[in-house]
Amino acid sequence: MLNINITNFRKNLFGVLEQTIKFNEPVNISTKDGNAVILSEEDYNGLMETLYLTSIPGMKEKLIEGLNTPISECIPENEVEW
Fold first, then answer.
1. Residue 81: is its pLDDT beyond 90?
2. 36: Cβ–Cβ under 8 A, 6 or more apart, which residues?
3. Strand pairing class (2-5; 27-31)
4. Could you read off the pLDDT of 13-24 as tens digits, one per residue?
């Protein structure tokens, strides 16, 4: 995470935002009244999706089970029935 104070953030607003978007690196901006964090839209959407999925009862366990399943036991993508 990039840490920057508000003065330096103002001086290089475009560059910092461009770096955040390009490299998905969050930015912590410190001010005298507190801090703020800037995320790329991609990171934000991923965070929201993670929160949504983990709010579904039993989904966390299913995801962990899927992560622990060997590839050899998985069905090829073209055979998955949606």
1. no
2. 28, 29
3. parallel
4. 999 999 999 999
Tell the residue number behind the tokens 């055979």, with chain if given.
Answer: 79
Strands 27-31 and 34-38: antiparallel
Beta bridge partners of 3: 28
Domain of residue 20, residue span: 2-39
Q: What CATH number is associated with residue 28? A: 3.40.1620.10
Question: Which one-letter amino acid corresponds to residue 62?
Answer: K
Beta strands in 1-82 (DSSP E): 2-5, 27-31, 34-38
Under a CB-based contact definition with an 8 Å cutoff, are residues 27 and 4 in contact?
Answer: yes
Asked if residue 60 belongs to a domain, the reply is no
DSSP, res 79: G
* pLDDT at 82 exceeding the cut of 90: no
